[in-house]
Amino acid sequence: MKHRLADKVALITGGASGLGRVGAERFAAEGARVIIADIGDASDALDAISKAGGAAAAVRCDVSDDASVRDSIEFAITTFGDLHVLYNNAGVMLSADDDPTNTPDDVIQTTLDINVKGVLLACRHAIPHMIESARRCGEASSIVNVASFVAHLGAATPQIAYTASKGAVLAMTREMAAIYARRGVRVNALCPGPVMTPLLAKFLSDDAKRQRRLVHIPMGRFGEAHEIVNGALFLASNESSWMTGQSLVIDGGITSAYVTPEGPSWP
Ligand SMILES: NC(=O)c1ccc[n+]([C@@H]2O[C@H](COP(=O)([O-])OP(=O)(O)OC[C@H]3O[C@@H](n4cnc5c(N)ncnc54)[C@H](O)[C@@H]3O)[C@@H](O)[C@H]2O)c1
């Protein structure tokens, strides 16, 4: 059977850890040549991909910095010659992010710079190449923007800057989908529910906090990274060829429920 990303080049921001790393490994296993663009060290992820027989390279990138993003996209083109998939996964949720009366300016600014401007800058530099790559291969290129379930419902956690940033990702997704629908680039958003990556683990450090969150998840458990990446793979691949401007929510039922059931979790 043909691999689902055979012959494709995919750039994943924030692919050195958490959901992005699982995505980088899975995309490579599905035949993509992967570029990991991360502010941190991606050598562990590269080793894992190469041990599994995949093709990948890494570039240091700060998604909030225009020159850094431009250089990373150029690196992808010089390394693998094409760019079919842009997986805008890098994101932060800062500890001092709180309600509107208590969130400091620098927290708002940094969150918006990375989570919103970062997506915009990557699209700015990638899209011209993605239009050309789509022409060459005859299938639309695909942008997958990682938002969150909090873009769809309010949470009293609270993290107002993060929530604002993820709402903006959905709005940008729809706008870019409309702009590029006839130019060979599809743009969709992925909205994960809570998964125990380093990003979330620091907020849910003790069992009592974790149990309080689980009450709001109808399926009664946190998600697994591979369950989110399954959605990313669908959106990145040509399996979603007639889909653009949409938001794929993978959240164990959170955004569908008002009252959650009691009893043991599933599965
Ligand atoms: N984990 C969850 O529960 C959850 C839920 C919903 C949405 N998300 C979203 O999923 C995405 C991945 O989150 P995660 O949980 O894997 O987080 P994570 O903290 O585990 O990983 C984030 C990665 O992004 C990188 N990064 C941070 N700032 C960067 C920058 N300026 N430039 C380039 N890379 C940068 C980090 O080095 C890291 O490798 C984020 O956009 C996050 O908002 C996560």
Summarize the structure.
With 267 residues, the chain is an alpha/beta fold. It is built from eight helices and seven strands, in the order βαβαβαβαβαβαααβ. The structure holds nicotinamide-adenine-dinucleotide.
**What is the CATH-assigned architecture?**
3-Layer(aba) Sandwich
In helices, the fraction of residues equals: 40-55%
Q: Any ligands, ions or cofactors bound here, and which?
A: nicotinamide-adenine-dinucleotide
Supply the helix-strand structural class: alpha/beta
**Which CATH top level class fits?**
Alpha Beta
Shape: globular
Number of contiguous helices:
8
| Arrangement of strands in the largest sheet | 3-2-1-4-5-6-7
Helix/strand order, N-terminal first: EHEHEHEHEHEHHHE
Mean of pLDDT? 97
Output the CATH topology: Rossmann fold
Total domain modules: 1
- Main pleated-sheet profile: 7 strands, parallel
The termini sit apart by 29 Å
The low-pLDDT segments are none
Please state the CA-atom Rg, rounded to the nearest Å.
Answer: 18 Å
Strand content: 5-15%
CATH homologous superfamily annotation: NAD(P)-binding Rossmann-like Domain
Structural account:
With 267 residues, the protein is an alpha/beta fold. It has helices spanning 18-29, 43-51, 66-80, 105-137, 160-180, 198-201, 207-214, 225-236, and strands at residues 9-13, 33-38, 55-60, 85-88, 141-146, 185-192, 247-250. The chain has a single domain (9-250), classed as Rossmann fold. 43% of the residues lie in helices and 15% in strands. Helix 1 (18-29) packs parallel to helix 2 (43-51) and helix 4 (105-137) runs parallel beside helix 5. It is globular, with a radius of gyration of 18 Å. Nicotinamide-adenine-dinucleotide (NAD) binds at residues 13-14, 16-20, 38-40, 61-64, 89-92, 114, 146, 148, 192, 194-195, 197-200. Nicotinamide-adenine-dinucleotide is lined by residues 13-14, 16-20, 38-40, 61-64, 89-92, 114, 146, 148, 192, 194-195, 197-200.
